[in-house]
Amino acid sequence: MTSCCFTFTLIILWLSCTIYVGGQGLTSERQFAAASEEVPFISCSVCGKALKHIRKQVRELRKDAASKGATVDEDDILTIVEASCNPSKKQGSWIPRYDIIEQDDSLQIVEHESQRRCQQECRTISRACEESIGDIDTDVGELLWKDDMKLSKLINKVCYEMTDACTKKIPKLKKGKRNDEVFKPMSDKEKKAYDVMSQMRSAPGMPGMEVLYREDIDQMVDKANNPQSNDKPDIEEEASSETAVPAQTGLGFVDTIKAAISNLYSGARKLFSFGWKRTEL
Hints:
Elements: H1 2-16, E1 18-21, H2 39-67, H3 74-83, E2 98-103, E3 106-111, H4 120-133, H5 137-146, H6 151-162, H7 188-202, E4 210-213, H8 214-225, H9 253-272
Parallel strand pairs: 1-4
Antiparallel strand pairs: 2-3
């Protein structure tokens, strides 16, 4: 009985750490992975764009602190730099605004005014960002803390001297071999959910928050109903990693949550082999 209550509590806690976005025909983000073969083509551009957005955030932080009579230390800046390549966090919210396009014999990144759901191209840009500045985030934080460089000089220092983001040899692009994602801006409902989630993910001790879509719940129900399935999705496990087949359901939100809890509980019982046994007195 204790194990049952404990497992049920875990399920409730997990569900409470999600934001549900209703709708049909949406594709889940949780299983998209970066196209690593495209990273070399965009590393230089991504490095420069990342520094542009990081520098802007640092300046806004300083301005806000000054208005309150406070100061910004190096750790505050490092926090921004460390999270700037993660599109799931507020500091990395610049990434879903960029689109990867094929131009001549290369790939370019183009900025849009609005954000889109973070799928493969978004993950690819995130990977390029990590490979460009992830290993030198402390050094980048120090440069930004000193704040004695113009943006052009900062980009030259980081992207050309401190890393090989702009100096490594780029392979020849195989034209027509990539699947280009159509840039589709988020709906107002999605954007609000993402903004809330980004804020929560950026808060200390809240790393596991996620936006939960209707088809995510459908898939959990399907997996719980088919525990013997040997299908293994092609998922690349990343700290910030999020193609699931879109599904539709006629259930309302409350009924869907109830079904998910019921099936998750059944799956947990099978997994941990616990249950009640009637005792004859």
